[in-house]
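#struct-pred

JT: dropping the chains for the assembly here, can someone run the whole complex?
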Amino acid sequence: MKVGLFIPCYVDAVFPKVGDACYRLLRHLGVDVTYPQGQTCCGQPMANAGFAKDSATLAKRYDDMFKGFDYVVAPSVSCTAFIRLQYPHILKDANHKCHIADNTLDMVEFLHDVLKVDSRLGKFPHKVSLHNSCHGVRELNLSSPGELMEPRFNKIKDLLQLVDGIEVVMPERADECCGFGGMFSIEELAVSKQMGEKKLARHMATGAEYITGADCSCLMHMAGIAAKQQTKPEIEFRHVIEILAEGL
Amino acid sequence: MSTSHSKLAKKFLENQQYADWHDSTFWGLRVKRDKMAAAVPEWEQLREKASQIKRHTLTNLDIYLQKFADAAEKNGVEVHWAKDAEEFNEIVYGILKDNNAKKMVKSKSMLTEECDMNPYLEARGIEVVETDLGERILQLAHQRPSHIVVPATHLTHDDVGELFEKELNTKKGDHDPTYLTYEARLSLRDEFLTADAGMTGANFGIAETGDIVVCTNEGNADMSTSVPDLQIAAIGLEKIIPDYECLAVFVRLLARSATGQPSTTYTSHFRKARPGAKKMHIVIVDNGRSEWLADEDHWETLKCMRCGACMNSCPVYRWSGGYSYSFFIPGPLGINLGMLHDPKKYSGNVSACTLCLGCQNVCPVKINLGEQIYKWRQTLDGLGVANPEKKMICKAMDYVFDNKSVYNTATSCAHIVNNLPSFMVNNGLNPWAYAHKMMKFPKKPFHKDMED
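RK: done, full complex below.
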């Protein structure tokens, strides 16, 4: 099984440690993983802002780059969701056959559903508040959305339980958006800030030392707000894969 | 970079205490909805069934509309067809004039808001009295609804108390809700007794029987129709459903989704004029709907039964209030309906969505509200209403991301930002700095690490 690692633009530029954690964890689990050079962005920021057509070049490049792989994995749920759900439409409009959208998975899905990891991982003796990202919940089914009357599950939480010493807690209104929303955070400054502050406060109210989640962009939003507010006690942010790879 | 919605939302958030109250009030409705839905084991099946019934009915709408009209006429009801708001208003005025009616009481109808019926009739000498308590408060306060189900919830009892002191001569300083409701009831009783005509909206029209079904909590639809001699019902053409078996599906969903009640207090069925009364009239309104039906991307909006669950659940609505939207219906539904009515006029609302997609999951008829907002955004540039700054940012991003070497240089140099003095980064020109402290860029991006 050949696996390609996709590290979206802002993870590449701002959170290289998350990329590194993905690579290390996959190697640790014996996966034949490759990181092709020349990656940039999936095109989601422009598409959500209303310029999906302009994402076609990026979609083509992505599809060509990863065509030969069995799976592509990425540590950013909204990018993954965008690729899987929107690329087929964008590429169809651009008359380009879409090869890899269906096999693009978030790291959590890949670990939980494909590798079905059940061995103990590292150690992280901390209290962690888990952030459910909207596109993880409602597009990739990483957990059951609170709005639906379905049996409850959370794949991120399942994976975190493989780490020794961790205590995972959920904030109130666990499935409510943090207010990032890509271009939303620039276009709707006040509401985005308000939603981010309230979400952060609910995470803090759990008494956790860390906030974790499967989407770096939500974490980046809340971390920026926490830093600006100089919240006390200080709370730290870790992508879920960083925690899973801790000490490996 | 701002939109009509974002500007008003910012203003709304200036009063944090009020904003907190607004958020928790509507979140409270969402919590009640969740509790009610969880108590129905087949909830998700019901939603799917409701969605399918709407799809089926809308697909065969011509047949069901004819069936509905035939059945209603057989019951002795006069059926009118209005192609748009203007025609609707003319028809209603015509009916009132023919019957020499000078005063009309009405129960809640969003359709009459859509058509601006009240001002039209008032300009022609008809007195129109809203009888839904929330709508009555707004009528006295000269405000428009801020929500489709609980239209005056943005007001506190003190607001209402002060208004009633002025308009209904209530006791000064007594803002007790029970007292205020009692006074409203007394004053409305007079209005019912002296009205010449009564109008209701319609939650459902039953094609099989020609019945109009109206769900209320206050019984005001029944008062509006059983006291005056003349009854008029206004119904949007998408509100037709095939039969009573279908109705059973919808009434189980409607109040649970809307207010977290198992059902509304009253579910009233109107088939024909009561004995001795004048002929009953039903006005079926199109006003753009038959066009939307053919819109591949947006026809699903017509499935809506106006429960308001999408608003209660929408964090952007809860944190910005109904008046921050330029269309008279707010929230995810209003963003979509506004764009269907007039995309140029109402494009300032499509920013009011993080694409969290929670609205789609609470919608009892499974409308893809968030996905449609995404699609509307794709049309803004073509309509010439895309924000120029946003467009520029997107074009610049395209340039960087489409050119590997530019991208590599940019990401490798990003850490230079870390060393700039704070005033150059954390200032008003950088929108990110409004809510955030600028992030620290690492020395090396991931791709560089892997290269080495």
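JT: nice. Residues 403-451 of chain B form one domain. The radius of gyration of chain B is 25 Å.
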